[in-house]
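Researcher: I'm comparing several assemblies side by side, and this is the next one on my list. It has 452 residues spread over four chains. Same procedure as the others: predict the full complex and return the structure.
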Amino acid sequence: MQTPTADTTAARRPRGRPRKTLDERDDGNRRVELVNAAARLFRRKGFDATSTRDIATAVGMHSGSPFYHFKSKGALLYAVMDEGMRSATLRQTAALEQACAALPDAAALLRVLVRNHFDILLGPGSDFIPVMLYESRSITARQRSSLAKLQSDYESVWQPVLQALSEQGRLGCPVKLARLLIFGALNWSAQWFDAKKGASLDELADAAVALFIGNNPKPPGRRVRP
Amino acid sequence: MQTPTADTTAARRPRGRPRKTLDERDDGNRRVELVNAAARLFRRKGFDATSTRDIATAVGMHSGSPFYHFKSKGALLYAVMDEGMRSATLRQTAALEQACAALPDAAALLRVLVRNHFDILLGPGSDFIPVMLYESRSITARQRSSLAKLQSDYESVWQPVLQALSEQGRLGCPVKLARLLIFGALNWSAQWFDAKKGASLDELADAAVALFIGNNPKPPGRRVRP
DNA sequence: CCTACCGATCGGTAGG
DNA sequence: CCTACCGATCGGTAGG
């Protein structure tokens, strides 16, 4: 767990920049380890309060070694955010495709999106998106606009669902503002949610959806018709 | 604006720890200036990315001088948060007392609370509460629990209003979760709101209230009866 | 509140 | 990926 070599032999690993041969697949794994450790530390302590030495230690490296994989601390932060957004979008797309086939009801689709968002935000291994949400001050303008594209992709899926609810008169305010307020309500949960006590993610999702589209026009119960 | 002495004479200010005499009231003012500058910088760049030198420069002091007024950088951060919460609570109490006399309707009271919260969060000179919300990782556990008391006072005012709405069947979910989700929706606006474009704070408050208690049971229009 | 300063830490690099 | 290291910056202090 401390040293990167798992061999039982006492053989020293070769020094120098490793050649990329087919039987050396450590490289990619170490990079992934660094990103995961960075996500966890950036989330717990914040970007500025986390040193590259902290990250190196967390994966059993020495202080200079992370810079073999990333050219700067900022690049490591961006990698966390970028990977977080790509993973989140993939999961959202999968969840929605599965749901679309079964329930064409807009309220049910909103519930799927909300539930999935809570999972991404609060579920196991959920450090990447909170880091993206709360450390965006520390990336460059160029990086921010690259991320904005990914965020836009993620959010664009919500648009038709909210639009449909609005047209059904089930949304209390304009779609654009509703989206911003709803994301706020969800994203803020990363600040107070405690997995070990209180509501489950399912209960949370139910409560959120009920708060937003309430017991409006369409009466509760019988959301899906067989 | 650069030097603390406004005299036209070239007289040097006396060195050494100043005695507290009645004709020296600079002391308190400089402290306030430091807190204001700290709030602005902590908000824009974050606590860790702001140096005490930045703050000193912002008020025309030299690098060591802030420590004459505050024993540490952390004490300066806590002063920002503490003052922000006390000010916010005072303003909320004033707004609510005024509203209670006029409109006893729970929905109208919620709208007053929401509008006031947006003002505290997004109005002119509104750096203190965002700093409190987004830099709480940087204070000690002891400070955090002191602040929690103030936050609890601030939030307690919302409880009876939400409770009344819940009993009227106008709240889609349990009161406790509603409070957390609503504060999330509001607090997140500090991340995206741009005073120079888009909705006004009044429009924002209308939209938020409409989203939360929607066009539920009681029909819209005629909220107050003359 | 300024001057002069210190110890610690940090991001990053050369060279292997 | 390690070793050894550097320049810069930072929070904080003594002494007046």
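Model: For your comparison table: Residues 73-102 of chain B form the longest helix (30 residues).
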